[in-house]
Design brief:
The protein is mainly alpha-helical and 456 residues long. It has helices spanning 10-41, 44-48, 62-70, 73-79, 117-123, 127-135, 149-155, 159-167, 192-200, 216-223, 226-234, 249-256, 263-275, 290-296, 300-308, 323-328, 339-348, 359-362, 366-373, 391-396, 398-407, 414-426, 430-433, 441-447, and strands at residues 58-59, 89-100, 105-115. The longest helix has 32 residues, at 10-41. Residues 411-450 form the SOCS box domain.
Length: 456
């Protein structure tokens, strides 16, 4: 048995078991769905008619496999000489880890996979081979191994093969076994031309994936594909479409914008969605709205745009956190993203300051911590946050941290109390009201919580 098994840690085994359970659950869902769709689509006359489909021919010849995978057109001409000869299934075998309940271990088990000559060549961009196979009777809509050739050519961004298949009758809305159409597989910038072709030949721009209910716009938004998003919206893609978790494309874009180097393109995607009618207040998974996601990713400009379009700074998710809570928890994770600007913007749009238990998350970010503390009319007594500040940061900003300790549970200056009164009066309109008062720039900045490096 040692030749067929490997030693795993208990943690790895638990992970593999969970993965196995998830795969089994997905298989059951697909089986139920296929049965339902079959009953729904077939008419009674077709349902009772004896099957007329011919027996599949399987190709296991390694030489033929090699010719297909390398795009050897001359050799393929010699192999597929007659009409109908290309309508075969290519069978390959690989070993996968599978759970063996009899012996209680994971073993390497041979598993057969099926594809077709047309899928192989279309997925590799061999347009001449695709043309030959279609001329020899290969069905552009055949689903070998659970998907069609158009899925492979679109996913692999081979526009010439995609066009050829479409002109030969390939269905641009054909679903694979996972409930996805070819347009759902256009997930990289390179697939833009394929997406255009699919739409030109009748792909439904609002077609949801059967299982997840995501639309092509969800997918393009989550990937930050600006060209795709612009194309879909120009063809009336619905920016308010909901997936199975209740998320809109705007939710998807804001949630995926978690890398500062890609902030720009996700900002532009969100901007297009908002201009097309996307709702910045629609909650998604676990009650997270777009502003929660933008704040949790410390994307200041994106959060600012959502607020400008009417997002509420005080809406809470299913855990009871508002966007400011989400921002405070990631202050130390995104120091290069100026988290204090995000905290300041949320407070100036009316976000309610959190309790002292949240201070530990932002205490190591002096600017954000100062802005937060200045939103209180007094600083409660307590030093639990001190342990969250690394020694080197404390030494660098000793003056600030000592001023916080000295001001704890002490009366704040009259000037600060006046600021708190004005901020309470204008509430969520501070960002608009204070600049319109005609006050000196320094005083306006003070009212808008500009940090000064110390607490008075």
């Amino acid at each position: 048995m040692s030749r067929d098994t490997f030693p795993f840690t208990s943690g790895t085994l638990r992970s593999l078991e969970r993965q196995k359970e998830q795969l089994e659950c997905q298989d059951r869902q697909r089986a139920v769905s296929r049965e339902y769709l079959t009953r729904k689509v077939l008419t009674p006359s077709r349902a009772v008619r004896p099957s007329m489909s011919r027996r599949h021919l399987y190709c296991r010849d390694a030489a033929i496999h090699n010719a297909l995978y390398t795009g050897d057109i001359e050799r393929l001409k010699g192999i597929f000489r007659e009409d109908g000869s290309a309508e075969v299934l290519v069978e390959t075998v690989s070993e996968e880890l599978q759970w063996s309940p009899d012996v209680g271990v994971w073993t390497l088990t041979p598993k057969k996979f099926h594809t077709s000559p047309l899928r192989i060549t279309a997925g590799r961009g061999y347009a001449d081979c695709v043309r030959l196979l279609v001329n020899r009777g290969a069905d552009p809509n055949a689903k070998a191994g659970g998907r069609g050739a158009l899925h492979d050519s679109s996913e692999s961004h081979h526009a010439e093969c995609t066009r050829l298949l479409l002109t030969r009758g390939a269905d641009p809305n054909l679903m694979d076994e996972d409930g996805r159409a070819p347009l759902h597989l256009c997930t990289t910038p390179e697939t833009y031309e394929c997406a255009k072709l699919l739409l030109e030949y009748g792909a439904y721009v609002n077609l949801p994936c059967h299982y997840t209910r995501v639309t092509p716009l969800h997918i393009a938004s989550a990937r930050g594909l600006e060209q795709h998003v612009s194309l879909y919206l120009s063809l009336d893609a619905n920016p308010s479409a909901l997936n199975r978790e209740g998320e809109t494309p705007l939710n998807a874009a804001c949630a995926a914008s978690d890398s500062p180097q890609h902030f720009g393109r996700y900002y532009r995607v969100a901007e297009m969605l908002l201009k097309s009618g996307g709702n910045p207040g629609t909650p998604g998974k676990k009650g997270h709205g777009p502003l929660h996601n933008a704040s949790a990713n410390c994307h200041f400009r994106l959060a600012q745009m959502l607020l400008d379009h009417g997002a509420s700074a005080n809406v809470t998710n299913s855990a009871g956190y508002n966007p400011l809570d989400c921002a405070l928890q990631v202050c130390t994770d995104y120091p290069e993203c100026q988290p204090h600007q995000l905290v300041r913007t949320l407070l100036n749009h009316g976000a309610n300051p959190p309790g002292a238990k949240m201070w530990k998350f932002c205490a190591a970010c002096p600017l954000a911590f100062e802005i937060l503390l200045n939103s209180y009319d007094r600083i409660p007594l307590g030093d639990a946050w001190v342990e969250a500040v690394p020694a080197e940061i404390w030494e660098e900003h000793r003056t600030f941290y000592e001023s916080v300790l000295n001001a704890s549970n002490q009366p704040r200056p009259l000037q600060h109390l006046a600021r708190c009164t004005l901020r309470k009066h204008f509430a969520g309109q501070c960002h608009k009201a204070f600049p319109d008062l005609g006050l000196p720039p320094g005083l306006t900045a003070y009212l808008l919580l500009q940090p000064e490096g110390t607490i008075h």
